[in-house]
Design brief:
mainly alpha, 217 residues, 2 domains, rod-shaped, two-stranded antiparallel ribbon, single chain
Length: 217
């Protein structure tokens, strides 16, 4: 007897439900027996369907050669942790900021030296943990740009290099102090203004980002 769907093809089995003769192409095997396509369970694949090939095991990490622990250790050296992560410009920024804090401490201003001693400690640990955080992202295959990290060194609302402008201004002030054209000790007394400006910038960035999301909805 030939298959009822393909009259020119010999039947190889009969449907358990309706007794319909089916060929190898039309039979559906399920529960240890044979069904036709009409009465086959929904999950039963065609008899000639090749078994799915096993997927190759996925690597746990896309870049297993990147070591967050090593990045953490190198991060205690100003700029080296960022350089290990391939972020050379950010490494330079880290080193310059470290040098600026050291220069402020050298002024030996009353009250300022104590505060910037804590700032220096916080900055050293920030560089280390930022390098660790960036290395983990690299190891997991996440995108990492030149300035990506725990804190943004670029403006979120524009392409203006905010950190670069600040570093240039601080460098100019320190150069004028070295040339005895400006008293940096006088300016250093107003260091809390930096905290006020940083807080205002973070608030502005947060509200600007929230407003941008509302506009695009």
């Amino acid at each position: 007897m030939n298959c009822q769907n393909h009259p020119d093809t010999p039947a190889t089995a009969y449907c358990r439900s309706c007794g319909k003769a089916v060929c190898e192409q039309c039979r559906r095997d399920a529960y240890g027996t044979v069904f036709c396509e009409e009465h086959a369970p929904a999950f039963a694949p065609p008899a000639d369907t090749p078994p799915p090939s096993p997927e190759p095991p996925r690597p746990r990490y896309q870049h297993s050669d990147v070591s967050p622990g090593l990045a953490l250790g190198l991060g205690f050296i100003p700029g080296v942790g960022a350089i290990y992560n391939g972020q050379y410009a950010k490494g330079l920024v880290h080193a310059v900021i470290f040098g600026i804090i050291i220069s402020i401490l050298d002024t030996n201003l009353e009250g300022v030296s104590v505060i910037f001693s804590f700032v220096l400690t916080a900055w050293i640990f920030y560089m280390a943990f930022e390098a660790y955080h960036t290395a983990r992202r690299r190891r997991n295959g996440e995108p990492v740009d030149e300035y990506s990290g725990l804190l943004s060194f670029q403006s979120r609302t524009s392409a203006a290099p905010v950190a670069g402008v600040i570093l240039v201004l601080l460098g100019v002030v320190l150069l004028l102090d070295t040339l005895h054209l400006f008293d940096f000790a006088y300016l250093a007394r107003y260091w809390p203004v930096l905290l006020i400006g940083a807080g205002a910038y973070l608030l502005y960035s947060r509200f600007s980002a929230a407003a941008s999301k509302e506009i695009h909805r």
